[in-house]
């Protein structure tokens, strides 16, 4: 019988590529939000992503989900793509620090474990708890500067609820990612366009904005999300969502390699704890 650990080895390439690409998103989001308001940035990002997905769909001659599933696909996109992205960026806009937000998002694998696995296995829970503790160490300095803005925390909790529920909904669709993503992104883009009518819109056109929108729209929203959807369809949801623990550590590593911001000893220890916790989770998967 194939264990979660051996299954993870079978998809090591896509998994490693997903973590690397997803980790770069925080760096480009930082630049983009300096040039545009959150809703304007989301409109530009997902308009580009939808254009790319539409071009791919035209080439493959198919862009619609299976007959009779469009409402479920659209609702999943509204929750997983629209709700999560909006809640995440609004939490940042309302003053929640990236470190606190990443820690709150780190509750997703634990919530998913409790919601989907019976009986609960102590070793799996302990592995996720160890990884969450490692995440806190990696983000320690940012957590000390955390602002507990009530509106921001509400948006962060909404983002957590959306990505957790949306991932469960996406798992149940059991369709090829390219069959569902165009409709899901169209629904999310419509949501952002409607919000742009009632929320502040600011755009400062620059090369930095173009680079940020291009990277997040094509690399994160298309390439990395295709990988994520493939992992969700093929693997155990707890195993897949636990990969997000690696993202802050990988982001810190990229920050060090690209900008010379060295990782602290607690961050290095936290990275080791995350890896150890994930090994325990995957072995028990």
What does it look like?
The longest helix is centred in the last third of the chain and has 28 residues. The chain is mainly alpha-helical and 285 residues long. It has 14 helices and no strands. Helix 2 packs across helix 13 and helix 4 packs antiparallel against helix 9.
Distance between the termini: 11 Å
**How many H/I helical runs?**
14
Low-confidence blocks of residues: 1-11
Question: What does the overall shape look like?
Answer: globular
The proportion of strand residues reads: under 5%
Number of strands: 0
Radius of gyration: 18 Å
Residue-averaged pLDDT, rounded? Answer: 84
Give the SSE map.
Layout lengths: L3 H7 L1 H24 L2 H23 L9 H24 L4 H8 L2 H9 L5 H17 L1 H5 L5 H24 L3 H20 L10 H28 L2 H6 L3 H14 L5 H19 L2
State the main characteristics.
14 helices, mainly alpha, 80% helix, 285 residues, disordered N terminus
Compact description:
The protein has 285 residues and is an all-alpha fold. Helices cover 80% and strands 0% of the residues. It has helices at residues 4-10, 12-35, 38-60, 70-93, 98-105, 108-116, 122-138, 140-144, 150-173, 177-196, 207-234, 237-242, 246-259, 265-283.
